[in-house]
Amino acid sequence: MRVLVTGAAGFIGSNFVRLLLQKYGSDAEIIVLDKFTYAGRMENLKEIMDKIELIKGDIAKAEDLEKVGDVDVVVNFSAETHVDNSIKNPEPFIRTNIFGVYNLLEFVRKREIDKFVHISTDEVYGSIREGSFKEEDRLDPSSPYSASKASGDMLCRAYHRTYGLPVVIVRPSNNYGPYQYPEKLIPKFIILAMHDRPLPLYGDGTNVRDWTYVMDNCEAIDLVMKKGKAGEIYNVAANDERRNIDVVKLILKYLNKPESLIRFVEDRPGHDYRYSIDSTKIRRLGWKPTTSFEEGLRRTVEWYMKNRWWWESLIK
Ligand SMILES: NC(=O)c1ccc[n+]([C@@H]2O[C@H](COP(=O)([O-])OP(=O)(O)OC[C@H]3O[C@@H](n4cnc5c(N)ncnc54)[C@H](O)[C@@H]3O)[C@@H](O)[C@H]2O)c1
Q1: Candidate list 58, 122, 210, 216, residue with the active-site label
Q2: How far is the CA of 81 from the centre of ligand 1 (A)?
Q3: Cβ distance 71 to 4 under 8 Å?
Q4: What is the per-residue pLDDT across 117-133, written as a single tens digit (0 to 9) for each?
Q5: Residue 75: CB within 6 Å of ligand 1?
Q6: Please, which pLDDT band fits residue 217 given cuts at 50, 70 and 90?
Q7: What CATH class has 2-176+213-236?
């Protein structure tokens, strides 16, 4: 099986490649294509470099995709992913998350490929006060990031319906775990707290997110790669909802640091209050998360404590 994994120098993609190597060994030939933006790092692939074929390339450039030979499966993780960056400058989000997805779909259209697994996000549904979104619910994105991801999903659906492409969409909830770039809440706050620096928490900290440990999400993506039905969408969430303030308090507890480090700061514009997705469909396919939030967060804190080499150069 030849698998093209795009964006695998990032957080989830690099963990996914590690999982594929663990599960399939030499039965899986893995080609990683990544643009190596600030979020894509060689450090994320360090110990598996000799087991993959690496191409430095941009999914928004058709000529870069031409460097890839024949493959059986494509899994697309590549994206601009930080909501705050999308508010400051949406352009790279439009380019990669929309035009890049179009290019990948064209790449797939020209070849005989068994499956194209596109990684989307729960943010495409927007905020929900009560209950949980199902896969067929309407999309209502709030940020330029989530709007660009929703547009990518629409193109995937259209290419399935129009050209019969074997596209499957995965919409995971918030992920956390090793190798996450420290712009995101959990790694950022772990590193700040390790330095006894204030933790700037948006608004009053009551926004709710549903946290999934990254390896559980990678297991779900692997399952979809094998058993997901073309044209379908699968929500992936551990259904372990937490208020941001409670997440931060738990990080401080694990690091044995005082809650007085928390500082409430002006809220992010268009900040969605709560994300919640129904994951019945992926569970019916045979997935269930195995890592509780407490256990996953403890492992994540320990990883950042033990792997200063990975993040120290990123800290000003
Ligand atoms: N992290 C989460 O909590 C989360 C939750 C739900 C969905 N997602 C989705 O999962 C995917 C992976 O997220 P992540 O957190 O690993 O992201 P990340 O920001 O850590 O990594 C993104 C990767 O994509 C690469 N990339 C960016 N633009 C590219 C381009 N034009 N061509 C090729 N490569 C490019 C980057 O270099 C990087 O390696 C994204 O599609 C994201 O929208 C993430």
Answers
A1: 122
A2: 5
A3: yes
A4: 999 999 999 999 999 99
A5: no
A6: very high
A7: alpha beta
What torsion, rounded to 10 degrees, do the Cα atoms 142, 143, 149, 154 define? 40
Average pLDDT, the chain: 97
Pocket test for ligand 1, best of 63, 77, 125 (most atoms within 8 A of CB): 77
Cβ-count burial of 138 within 10 angstroms (0-12 exposed, 13-18 middle, 19+ buried)? Answer: exposed
* DSSP alpha helix (H) spans, the chain: 11-24, 62-65, 83-88, 91-94, 101-109, 144-163, 185-194, 214-227, 244-255, 280-285, 293-306, 308-311
Q: Sketch the domain layout of the chain as residue ranges.
A: 2-176+213-236, 185-208+240-276+292-314
Q: Is this model's pTM higher than 0.70 or not?
A: yes
How many other CB atoms are found less than 10 A from the CB of residue 305?
13
* Rounded Cα gap, residues 47 and 77, in angstroms: 20
CB-ligand 1 contact for 119 (6 Å cutoff)? yes
Ligand 1, atom nearest to 36 Cα: 37
* Chain segment 32-85, per-residue pLDDT in tens: 999 999 999 999 999 999 999 999 999 999 999 999 999 999 999 999 999 999
Third-level CATH fold of 185-208+240-276+292-314: UDP-galactose 4-epimerase; domain 1 (3.90.25)
The pLDDT, as a whole number, for residue 270 is 85
Q: Average pLDDT for residues 185-192, to the nearest whole number?
A: 98
Q: Which residues contact 258 (CB under 8 A, 6 or more apart)?
A: 252
Q: Are 141 and 109 in contact (CB under 8 A)?
A: no
